[in-house]
Amino acid sequence: MAEPGYIIQERTPKKPAYPIRDELRGYLRRYRRERDLPVTYERLRDFHEAMPLVDADGKNTLWDTVVYRAEDMAAINEDLKRIYALLKVDGDFSVMQHLYIDRVDFCSFGNSMPFRVRIVNAYNENPDYFYVKKADASRVYGLELEHLLSPNRLNFLTHGNSLIEEHIAGIPGDVFIERWLSDPTLRPIRIAKELVKFNERCFIRLLGDMRSYNFVFVVTPDFESSQVRIRAMDFDQQSHHGRKNFYLPQFFKDNLPLVEFCTQHLHAKTAFQYQREEQTLMLQRAELAKARLDALLEAMAVDPIAPDEHVRQLREGLADHYESKDFLACPTMGALVRESLAKTRARIEHDASGHLPKL
């Protein structure tokens, strides 16, 4: 990873929502992401009242708990259970009868203005969550690229202008930095390694705005210490911004403690090793899902999910970074993602042929 020095400090302007066009809609139907859903985003917007939701310490969160009219509540709750069944067990409602909807929360902060549904198992009171959001094409591309190219599988569904997402469990990055980064039970090298790999995944597939509150840490106990993985949980800025460094989490001010931690514990050659490991794994995943990934990028390559000036700025930045003019011929963000994957593969093949890599 590069030494910290050029940290992005400005807040992201609100990104417009891009409609799901026919090419993407066809892809979603083909791979059973587009389904007939009993509840839409607009239906949930018709709530009767809202009350601020507080955390365990009594502090206000960014969420409000919403209440629907008494005559509508039972039907909405039943239909939300059916959505959960579609998300988890392909619609087999027979195994969902013991669940109940405990709460529906609404957040007016951010681009997607989501609803968060808390659903509980009546037998053991174990809760789970899912989200209902306004559909946005760039976010859908981000979710699907995460599913295909990262080590994480994602369940989501679309229906018209509605998007259903499963909950991504983990410790929010800003909370991890504050409370866990110096935890003696976690090996520093594993945290640093995962940050390098996460940084590489975001850059190759052009997922932007990975400030600390937009990703989570998943800590898994192992027979020696614990393993750590970083997972993105916000995909609004998939291939939208024009600035190259916007796709490198290392350049965000919020992530500076992680970057300093990483440079403290990793030698440059070791960092390069972890970069190469993640590049190789991403390309292996791409090869395994080749037909599906090609279909997704074909739709993405004709989809205007960013202003033309952003595309021009980013392709110039990538052309300079990779020292390749091929990026300058890319007319869209989808074409840039495709070229980024191609250039990563070419670099690996070039280095494997016996040339020494640049450090």
Overall description:
With 359 residues, this protein is an alpha+beta fold. The chain folds into two domains: 22-166, no CATH class; 171-352. The chain has helices spanning 22-30, 41-45, 70-89, 137-149, 173-179, 188-205, 256-265, 268-288, 290-300, 308-322, 333-352; strands spanning 49-54, 60-67, 99-106, 115-121, 127-134, 156-159, 162-166, 171-172, 215-221, 226-232. The chain starts with 21 loop residues before the first helix and ends in a 7-residue tail after the last helix. The model has no long low-confidence stretch (mean pLDDT 91).
Radius of gyration: 21 Å
Uncertain spans, ≥5 residues at pLDDT below 50? none
Strand content: 15-25%
Mean model confidence by pLDDT = 91
Distance between the termini: 10 Å
Query: H/E series, N to C?
Result: HHEEHEEEHEEEHHEEHHHHH
Helix count equals 11
Which term fits the overall shape? globular
Helix content: 40-55%
Estimated structural class = alpha+beta
Main sheet overview: 7 strands, antiparallel
Q: How many domain modules?
A: 2
Strand neighbour order, sheet with most strands:
1-2-3-4-5-7-6
User: What's the total count of β strands?
Assistant: 10
List keywords for this structure.
globular; alpha+beta; three-stranded antiparallel beta sheet; 359 residues; seven-stranded antiparallel beta sheet; single chain; 2 domains; 17% strand; 42% helix
